[in-house]
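Posting this for the archive.
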Amino acid sequence: MSLSDYTGRFRVLAAVCVLAVLAGCNVRPLYGTVGANVAPQEELAAIDIQQADDRVEQVLRNELIFMLQRGGEAAPPRWSMKMIVNRTKSSVAVEELSDVPAAYLVQMTASFALTDIKSGHTLLTGSTFANASYDFSNQRFANLRAAREAEDRAAKVIADDLHTRLAAYFAGRESKPAVARNASGIRSWLL
């Protein structure tokens, strides 16, 4: 066999592999409708988010509600979302001569569960995190404001990630029995 026979066969094999990979692709609009399916935006507006326990959770809740409802009216709730928010603060830089922290890092983690209100089945679970840093100075009020703004920045990042995950879940959802998905995308059928 000549070299041209091998390159021809290689091209055919490569084309078949590419077509096999593309056959598995499922491209659909994230915020549009396809056929008789309900738009994910209508589904997102029907999520009821639990009440917040503190200021940072309230910032996260408000951001998420605004993203889910797009500033409009809330739909009648069909799903319930519960979140557990944990945050820590650690110093990341120390001034040499005074042993005083020069910068802090706020680490925030939110674990969530999306539940169908009618059946009580858990549809989606997972966790997300965000980090935000701020500089520490010798002014007490400036430190308080900087810490608060870092917490707000982290809460907004988490809200954006949760919104994206929820939109992807509803966009990929089909009319099948309830399926629970964890953060890594592994499905388990609910009975």
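The longest helix spans residues 140-172. Residues 40-189 form a domain with the Double Stranded RNA Binding Domain fold (CATH 3.30.160.150).
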